[in-house]
Amino acid sequence: MALKVAIVGRPNVGKSTLFNRLVGKRLALVDDRPGVTRDRRYADGNIGDMDLTLIDTAGYEDVTDDSLESRMREQTEAGIEDADVILFMMDAREGVTSLDEIFAERLRRQDKPVILLANKSESRESGGGVGEAYSLGFGEPVAISAEHGEGMADLYAALVTASADIFIEEIDEPDKPIRIAIIGRPNAGKSTLINRLIGEDRLLTGPEAGITRDSISVDWEYEGQNIRLVDTAGMRRKARVQEKLEKLSVADTIRAITFAEVVVVVMDKDNAFDVQDLQLADLVEREGRALVYVASKWDLEENPQARMAELKRMADDKLPQLKGSPFVALSAHSGRGVERLMPAVLKAHELWSVKVKTKDLNDWLSMATQRHPPPAVDGKRIKTKYMAQTKARPPTFVLFASRGGNLPDHYLRYLTNSIRESFDLPGVPIRLTVKGGSENPYAAGGAKSGPERYKGDAKTAPRKVRKKEEEESHLPGKALEQKKTRVAKPRVISGVKASSSKKAGSSVAIQKGARGGARQVSRSGRIRTGQKHAPKK
């Protein structure tokens, strides 16, 4: 088992920044404003060769009333009680404040090793604050910079010294837990529901809307099964989310949905299946996660049976792609109906992980196509060949068919709904893909087409066709006249012996000379007789 280390201090001294650095991920939300962290958060991290279980806490406030700050202080004190070593962080730029002194007095009562950290010590202005830290009574402070990673070697040495007398019990690694994300709109009762399930006030709750900002993971065991509950921030409509911190909270919630296996959508019974609830449920279906509906504050409902029937009808009408998802009505405040939630969650997880035999799938495919054959596209019937399941979580199937790319969407919906009904998979998101042999994988845009090669302008440009008149216009005057004469008159093969034509070359024609008389000429117009003209007298 790793060493439990709690990071504590007043607000806005860099506790979450150090938490993220030791964990190696940006798990905790970080912002310039104070009081971003409200709940205590656990995560596994390390420094050097030392494994740590880190506890990020809220900024300490010296308040004891019923306000939100007082409840945050109680969460911080619970983290201190659970830790083996305490990292007390102060701001070296601002020096020791009165709140630091009050918190130091509180920590001196703990019978646990405390390491004083002077954060933000990367600049020259922080030297005076590091000197003031000696007055807190925890020995020499460790100067670090959580933002830039400076002083981590000194922090490692201090942790090794502080944990020398601490016995760390070795325990077996637990089985992989089922990850369950609790989502919904603000003030729907998500944190109260988790506290009711685990039986303790683990998460910060109250009448204020939007208390939870980070996605807090809580490990729990239910009937021998390891469970990891993830409490998320309430999600409002996208148009209403303007502040940077709320955008970070929404992004953290979406990430929790992505890594969850079962998602519980908590809705207020009076405003159930509002636009935001429908969008959240559709997001869960698109991510391929198992879904469970929860109607909270059910102890205030006057007509529970009629209202339950109405809500189930609304769920099937507005979300037909998730028809048959389990629906649980409960009251997290009074505990009424909470015992029905976990059986519904485990049942949804079991269906989400189902695997269907290939033989049963093909028997079902034969009956489904006989009952409703595939439609004809462009006058040709589409023939289904066989079907197989490629993976579970969610169940994913592949249908092989001739000309499968032309299978219409309505027929795919028919097959998907038929799978859900025939194999008893209510509310489970099903993925169905179709593969066929009609598509050419090497065609443009195909699976094996690859990037298109650039052939250049010289090769791709169309070849210019030059007209015959343009070619003849470049000839000299005498050659042009002979060209026209040769083209205009047909060739006459007569009065010439075969032997003479062979001796003269290719075929010859009879052409009259200027003074009469026949002369043998070749294609080029030259006289082939070999006689010279007599000089003119």
Automatic annotation (TrEMBL):
Single Gene Ontology MF annotation: GTP binding
Organism superkingdom: Bacteria
Biased composition (Basic residues): 525-537
Keywords, alphabetical: GTP-binding, Nucleotide-binding, Repeat, Ribosome biogenesis
Basic and acidic residues bias: start-end ranges: 450-460, 467-484
Disordered as annotated region, ranges: 437-537
Listed Low complexity bias regions: 492-510
Limits of the EngA-type G domain: 3-167, 178-353
Residues that hold GTP 2 according to the record: 184-191, 231-235, 296-299
GO terms (BP aspect): ribosome biogenesis
Binding site for GTP 1: 9-16, 56-60, 119-122
Family according to the record: Belongs to the TRAFAC class TrmE-Era-EngA-EngB-Septin-like GTPase superfamily. EngA (Der) GTPase family.
Subunit and interaction comment: Associates with the 50S ribosomal subunit.
PANTHER family given in the database record: GTPASE DER (PTHR43834:SF6)
Role played: GTPase that plays an essential role in the late steps of ribosome biogenesis.
The protein, known as: GTPase Der
Source species of the chain: Brevundimonas goettingensis
